[in-house]
Design goal:
It comes from Sphaerochaeta halotolerans. This protein has 486 residues and is an all-alpha fold. The protein contains 20 helices and no strands.
Length: 486
């Protein structure tokens, strides 16, 4: 029953894109023979793969994540807590599917950037900022101050970093908060919350959004010590090609096993020396890992066999037809993505629970849809005109940091976390490949122009949830004033 529920959730998030691309194929941008069928088969494989993966994560990884968080906090040893945060953060990134897809796409357009250096930098960034997230809760440091200092550091590093790295750096953060990292990090936070003596509801949030900042900062630091990363796409050699699905199973299996190994080893070590789960739960965890592995294999086969090549072609053909079509598609795909993203539904339920139903679901859903749709449009506008990413990120995140000092504390971490969960697997697969194709078609440089689209999907939900928090604060103030008047 749980498996069918996962299939339904993932299917609802992928189906709109399948329908949209099919309509484009028949009426606007006809794809070459075999591409549309490969895309649809790839979509089915992605739905099945992500469903199995999420089911396996729920069964096998989230329970041990909670137990690790509780166990290390009970020990009351700060050094153990910090080491755990670092190791868990790094192991998660090695296994995160969004990061694997991002590395492939970066290699496609910028072969001068080392995938291994990127992977290690992103993993270290997540580990370090997961440490900061945990220390913040233990020492009761205000989350808004952590955000303010972190984003100020990002701005300073960005000024001195190579422009070609900026989009990739910010997308690294967006991709790091993917379908594996988010639930595992949240489970770790829940485990810590269970054994904290003085814990507020606001302390349950902020882990995921801080994990987004870490990879971005690490990549900007990497750019300071790297060579020239400005490698333009060569359309004749860099176009992703449709490949037979059967030929992708062997490399995908090898990739999955090698990426999951560090996380599995880490869980085994904590089980032996610290957690000591009963045998029944260990067997259940083993089944969960098998489900997750099989799901990841299907996911990578579907992504590489259908989604990435077709996303590139759709973006390229729309750009060749009319640049205005790119703006329209960016708006539509952004709005559709957030409407169908399962994690967004969870976010809305959280906001409703926090506000006791004062902020209605249709209003929140419409606001998020308009916001992310606008992000998609802005991303395409930036690609068409080759505008610096700072023109968009500084105003939005600057406003977000300022608003964090005006809204209730409960909404601070929740708002920044909402941006992290809005960029699901679609952003790092189809939408990013679409952006690369669009940039190539208009004669831009995808390294500096196309990358950054994942963070565009992530940034507007932050401000929207904060504005909802501000609205809730004013409603509460009116209710209190009315109560006193009586």
């Amino acid at each position: 029953m749980e498996a069918l529920k996962k299939v339904k959730e993932v299917g609802l998030s992928i189906l709109p894109v399948l329908l949209l691309v099919t309509l484009l194929h028949f009426f606007v941008t006809p794809l070459s023979e075999g591409m549309i069928s490969s895309f649809l088969i790839g979509g089915v494989l992605i739905i099945l793969g992500l469903s199995l993966f999420l089911l396996g994560t729920d069964i096998g990884l989230i329970p041990i994540g909670e137990r690790i968080g509780s166990a290390v906090t009970r020990k009351k040893r700060l050094s153990l807590l910090l080491i755990t945060a670092l190791l868990v953060g790094m192991a998660i990134i090695f296994a995160e599917p969004n990061i694997s897809v991002l590395l492939e796409q970066v290699s496609l357009v910028a072969p001068s950037i080392s995938p291994l250096s990127m992977l290690l930098s992103i993993a270290l960034g997540v580990g370090l900022f997961l440490m900061i997230a945990m220390v913040r809760v233990i020492l009761h440091v205000g989350l808004k101050w952590v955000y303010a200092i972190s984003y100020l550091l990002l701005l300073v590093l960005g000024i001195f970093s190579k422009p070609e790295f900026l989009g990739i750096a910010f997308d690294s953060g967006g991709a790091a908060t993917g379908p594996l990292a988010v639930p595992f990090i949240m489970a770790l936070g829940v485990g810590i919350a269970h054994v904290q003596k003085s814990q507020t509801d606001a302390d349950n949030f902020g882990y995921v959004s801080l994990a987004l900042i870490g990879p971005t900062m690490a990549m900007l630091v990497l750019s300071l010590f790297s060579g020239d990363g400005n490698t333009a796409v060569q359309t004749t050699s860099s176009v992703p090609q449709i490949q037979p699905f059967l030929s992708l199973f062997a490399p995908s299996t090898q990739q999955v096993l090698s990426s999951l190994l560090p996380l599995v080893v880490l869980c085994i070590l904590y089980q032996i020396f610290l957690v000591r789960m009963p045998a029944r739960q260990l067997i259940r965890m083993a089944f969960g890992l098998v489900y997750a592995s099989l799901g990841l294999i299907l996911f990578f086969v579907g992504v590489n066999g259908g989604f990435i090549p077709v996303g590139y072609q759709i973006g390229y053909q729309l750009g060749q037809l009319n640049e205005s079509l790119l703006l329209v598609f960016g708006l539509v795909i952004g709005a559709v993505t957030v409407l169908s993203e399962p994690s967004v539904a969870v976010l809305i339920d959280q906001v409703q629970e926090i506000t006791q139903g004062h902020l209605r679901k249709p209003i929140m859903l419409a606001a998020l849809s308009i916001g992310v749709g606008g992000s998609g449009l802005m991303a395409m506008f930036r690609i068409i005109h080759s505008l610096p990413i700072w023109y968009f990120l500084v105003p939005v995140y600057g406003l977000a940091v300022l608003l964090s000092f005006r809204i209730p504390d409960l909404f601070v971490g929740l708002s920044f976390d909402s941006g992290s969960v809005s960029s699901g697997p679609l952003a790092s697969t189809f939408i990013l490949s679409f952006a690369i194709g669009a940039s190539t078609s208009v004669g831009g440089n995808p390294v500096s122009d196309a990358f950054g689209i994942i963070i565009f999907v992530s940034m507007t939900p932050v401000v929207i949830v904060q504005l909802l928090g501000l609205l809730y604060k004013r409603k509460q103030a009116k209710l209190e004033k009315g109560g006193k008047g009586q």
